[in-house]
Amino acid sequence: MLLIYKFVVSLLILPTLVAYADGNSCNVSPSEKCSIDSLPLPGDDGSVLIYPGGNTRCAFDDYSDNTTTFKSSSQYFFQVFPNQQDKSKVLLFFQGGGACVDKYTCNFALQCQLGASPLITTTAKVDNSGIMDRGADGNPFNDWNVVFLPYCTGDLFVGNTELEASESAYNQALGNKQCLGQNRSMHLNGYNNAKTVLDWALENFPNPEKLVIGGYSAGSLGAQLWSAKVAEMWQVEQKSTKFQVLADSYVGVFPEHKAAASSLVNFYGGCDVDLHFPEQMKAECKAGTASATALVDALIKETPKSEWLFIDSNADRTQRKFYELVRLGIAGYPFSTLLDAGEFYGNLTQILDSHAQLTSVTRFNIDSDKHVWLMSPDYAATTSLDGAVLGNVLSDWLGHGSNASNMTVGYKTNKTIL
Predict the structure, then answer these.
(1) Which of 17, 176, 359, 370 has the fewest other C-beta atoms within 10 Å?
(2) Is residue 291 a part of any domain in this protein?
(3) C-alpha distances in angstroms, 44 versus 18, 85, 133, 145, 369?
(4) Taking CA 70 as the corner, what is the angle to CA 22 and CA 374, rounded to the nearest 5 degrees?
């Protein structure tokens, strides 16, 4: 049983990059809005934690397992790196941290049995690494107002449903039987968490000159799915706000032949929430017939003047593992054969080609199987397939995005195998 346990952990875990900060905090209440101008002084990492309460929460109620060291907490917060002297530049950044895909993976028992390495992040956590590091020389976001959205619901920030407690034969095959019989439901509450944070950000930064929504891993897809709604909330077209989308290490390469990507969004309850999809796409989402490409294309059409930067490894192992998890489910382990790297990159290229027909798309492609780049301390030195430097490309894109329309950095043509 121990061997099976370790095997599942090593193959199914979608890693998160987490650093712990010692920031000061503010609790939202009827008498305290935690407005940007009244926040306490930031902690050593330059951030303040805001506890919004209300309808925010993480996936599971509070629990701590002494045997596996698994922990869950229902409490949600978000992290703000303020620049109170200049509110003209705002970054909304969505954390990564895995995703569950069905009733066999979206349950408390499995996450608890996987111990310190659950399939999803089950507590809200701060991050001050990579582009969140205010002390890093050359960080292009050092003087921006950064609103960081922790991820603890496993639903790509679009969930809006509660799943009843469930267990299956897969749970019986794993160890840590103390995790069974807990009768704990799972709250796919990512939409409400994100909307609460974005409402706070809009109230406190209503008129930025530059607005970037971004994220890494699952947070990358979350940012893409929220892009049109954020553009609508801030009225970026009416106000001529420079609006950009920064996507690190997730493009919707999905086993569409098994089920369209929208079937997963619908499982989370994400087809019923307001992401600013046009009515026809809402219907296709509910019907489970819309591909990942079609979903994001529909949102791009709502914000045609947006500028997008995709940062991806050409053989990203985590994205390829997630593909197999969706295709085969947990029953498919040991996933001894991943989606071929060339096929993955070919499909990634095809997806971005589709997006590039609709708006400005810059691609930074890296010859690697690594997952997530912007949260590494040395991200700025990362080189693309043709030798471009990520720090330079990111700075140029932020400052001169209109001159980088449909630019590809480190692009190689691959045959696309469908």
Answers:
(1) 370
(2) yes
(3) 17, 18, 11, 16, 34
(4) 50
Residue 270 CA neighbour count, 13 Å, CB half: 32
Q: Which residue has the tokens 């409402």?
A: 199
- Residue 407 inside a domain? The answer is no
Q: CA 127, CA 91: separation in Å to the nearest integer?
A: 14
Tell me the C-alpha distance between 241 and 232, whole Å: 11
CATH of the domain at 159: 3.40.50
Give residue 63's identity as a one-letter amino acid code: Y
pLDDT in tens, 6-21: 444 333 334 443 333 3
* pTM higher than the cut 0.85: yes
59 domain residue, yes or no: yes
Instruction: Label the pairing between strands 210-216 and 89-94.
Output: parallel
Segments forming the whole domain that contains residue 322: 38-398
Q: Interhelix angle for 292-302 vs 261-268, to 10°?
A: 70
Q: Are 226 and 277 in contact (CB under 8 A)?
A: no
**Do residues 59 and 97 lie in contact, with contact meaning Cβ atoms separated by under 8 Å?**
no
Sign of CA dihedral 102, 107, 109, 111: positive
Backbone angles phi, psi at 264, to 5 degrees: -70, -45
Give the tens place of pLDDT for each residue, 173-202. 888 999 999 999 999 999 999 999 999 999
User: Tens digits of per-residue pLDDT, 363-405?
Assistant: 999 999 999 999 999 999 999 999 999 999 999 999 943 444 4
Tell the residue number behind the tokens 């890693």, with chain if given. Answer: 15
Task: Report yes or no on 107 lying in a domain.
Answer: yes
Tokens at 170, concatenated: 């897969």
Domain count, the chain: 1
Polymer length of the chain: 418
List the structure tokens of 44: 């050593």
